[in-house]
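Dear colleague,

As promised, here are the two records you asked about, laid out in our usual form so they can be pasted straight into your sheet.

NAME FIELD: protein one
SEQUENCE, THEN STRUCTURE:
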Amino acid sequence: MRNKWKYIWSLMFCLLIGLGIYSNVSIGEANEKSSGTITIADAGWDSMRVHNEIAKFMIENGYNYNVDFINGSSSATFTGLRTGEIDIYMELWLNNLEEPYLKAKKAGEVIELATNFTTNQQGFFVPTFVIEGDPEHGIEPMAPDLKTVQDLKKYPELFKDPTDPSKGRIVGGHSGSVAQEIMKQKVKTYGLDEYYNYFSPGSSGATSASIEKAFKNHEPWVGYYWSPTWILSKYDMTLLEEPAYDEEIWNKNYGTAFPENQIYVVVHKDFPEKAPDVTKLLRNYETSNELTGEALLYMQEQDATTKEAAKWWLEEHQELWTKWVPEDVAERIKSAL
């Protein structure tokens, strides 16, 4: 009997050792599957979030990194990029962060890898039916001679501020955005503050909702908007004319049209060493205004999340993104789709 128990205890001991070894190997294998964690800035607007999700899907499934998003305003997230708290900025709008960006670039704190896309649609927008009417719905033109920002001085009553009927309302950049301060200064520079109150929505989503409401009810609306967005992919809006861009005037008081905006993919200075394989992907990352707008419109019409829209975009545009990565990486990403 004693020998029998010795045999049983020996067998159990061997099993425990075996399980321990198996457990250690499993943990080791699991660790090998993750190459570390990469952080991406989320400054709050939809196009950035779609590109973030596209990059996340490709990085996690193609290169086995974990990806986390860090939320904050444009200024706060860019500061995080400079200090290294954030690794990647998928949509850095040059004109909106020009001074701190050029300073950080000169100091060697950040590295520009690619131009994600370029846009020149940014400024004061109105629904086109305000100018041209909408015969299909029996809407007459409300401001047929509205062409320029200065023409807005004729129509404060048309764009009446619901909280202050003595003035019109111009919807500005949303709270926390760089455009908020630029547009606020533009209103003063053009002398529109005598006729209009400047209103900053709490988020880009609140701005979109106010435009949707205006189109649904055929109500006048004027304010800041930009492309690429699902709004401009879905609705017919007109960008009001401003004086042609002049760098000296722009730097003085923003009293010209927005310059053409380069939207860069930028990383912290240490990132190429941290993830050289992902760096190569990001150097090839190039889309367009139209391609980005497609994803945003899909998200809106299908009531999809940015994650779902990113996956749809990757499925739709395999001929594009497969050129950004090696063949084996592309196959892993396609399998994950």
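NAME FIELD: protein two
SEQUENCE, THEN STRUCTURE:
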Amino acid sequence: MAIDVYKDWLGIKEPGPFDHYTLLRLPKFEDDAEKIRNNYKKLNGHVRKYATGQYSVRSQELLNELAKCMLCLTDPERKRDYDEGQGRVFEEDERTRPSMDRVLIKQGHMDRGQAKEAQGFAEQRGLTFCDAVVQMKLVDRETATKALAEERGLSYIDLDETPPQFTVLDKLPKQVCRRNTILPLFIDEAVLLVACADELSHELEEELRLRYGLPIKTVLATPQSINAGVEQYYSELKDALAAAAEAGVTTGDGSSRKQASASSAAKSSTKVASGPAKRFNQLPPEEQQKKKQIGYILLMWGLIAPVLIDNYLVKPNISALDFGAFVPSISTILITPCVAFFVLKVYWK
């Protein structure tokens, strides 16, 4: 039976096609970037509940669709163009953007005096204003990066919620990402989206354009999340390609890599084509709770099973040897630690 993901998962009752605001369950022409990101985050967590099982492919497709909507609506220039295409009329033509200090003052993170102090701190030490407010502990890095994105007219992205596509990641060497603190994400409307800590240099943008044959669009993320993402996602890409290579047919002309990738994609649905699996602490709260409950059940049976085995299997068969009190501990010593290790170090990792 075919499933209508828009109706069943997102709760959209009207017929499609749907605009970005409808998909993200937002009022038409919503301008609050934080509200847009929050709605995306909630929907992302909900849709990820279907990321395994028979709906895994459709789930990943919808996640990609939601991510593209969010990135468009949190990019001031792209949002304005999109809104105008949707019939919105702006009262003024001038596309002014607030400075980072004004954004943080408006959000209540600092006052004008602290902003002026941070400006002086930045000038004295040769820092950017973004680095200065973080070093002064006025705001955390994520808040500062979001404000910088608003100042630059760019989108902010949480890489824990929006991992890259492996087919995009595979075209750029890991060392290039490390050296420049960037992470290519996916292609949206014939434009490559690249997460970076600041805007790309002209030379780097040109290199990426030549590698991918596409224009480049920057989205901002914290340096820590980019560095962590580079290590995690390239490691998972390497594992996925190795598994795919085992299933592929080597032709000697370099085509085995493509065949292997296709074979792996067929077996793991969206592993290579759509993105990596999530670690336990990156799962949505509902899925974390479900895995916790299953883990507790496994731990409980790790204690109960040895007792049952000792009393109903071991002792009746070796009672003549009179092992006494030592017998009940045999299965406990063997089974309980193994179950605990699996749950704590593997299943909940």
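A couple of things worth noting about protein two: Residues 282-347 form one domain. Residues 109 and 189 are 36 Å apart (CA to CA).

Best,
R.
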